[in-house]
């Protein structure tokens, strides 16, 4: 093998190195996307359960108007039982702002940089659930319970 051939082989071996770094970035991006998809699937599962519960309710069920967002539905009910409180949650709010309006969540799930605040329990005789998605310490998604 001549010097020129050896140099050409060496260049061919070193050429993929920048692409390996690019592949690492692609892998990191794909892992983040997988985390987001897992989170979305979990949220969709909860939503499907909620919709199935709602579909199984007898028609003609009426609900009373909700009180103001910062007041609990009644002195014994949590803040999150109030639909108006949920409607006051907007994208971009901080987690502290959410907790001040809905109260402490019944559970929290953290998946990478995603955090979900779950609010679950009985409202009257119905089991309801809602959640708030937090990304980088800010609200990015709200699933309002069906009251």
Structural summary, described in words:
The chain is α+β, with helices and mostly antiparallel strands and 147 residues long. The chain has a single domain, classed as 2-Layer Sandwich (Beta-lactamase Inhibitory Protein, Chain:B, domain 1). Helices cover 45% and strands 21% of the residues. The protein is built from four helices and four strands; from the N terminus they run H-H-H-H-E-E-E-E. Strand 2 and strand 3 form a beta hairpin. It is elongated. About 9% of the residues have low confidence.
CATH class: Alpha Beta
Provide the domain count: 1
CATH topology: Beta-lactamase Inhibitory Protein, Chain:B, domain 1
Helix and strand composition category: alpha+beta
Number of helices: 4
Beta-strand content bin: 15-25%
Topology:
Blueprint: H1 3-14, H2 16-56, H3 83-87, H4 95-102, E1 107-111, E2 114-123, E3 126-135, E4 138-143
Antiparallel strand pairs: 1-2, 2-3, 3-4
Explain briefly what this protein structure is.
The chain has 147 residues and is of the alpha+beta class. The protein is 45% helix and 21% strand. The termini are far apart.
Top keywords for this entry?
147 residues; elongated; 4 helices; alpha+beta; four-stranded antiparallel sheet; Beta-lactamase Inhibitory Protein, Chain:B, domain 1; single chain
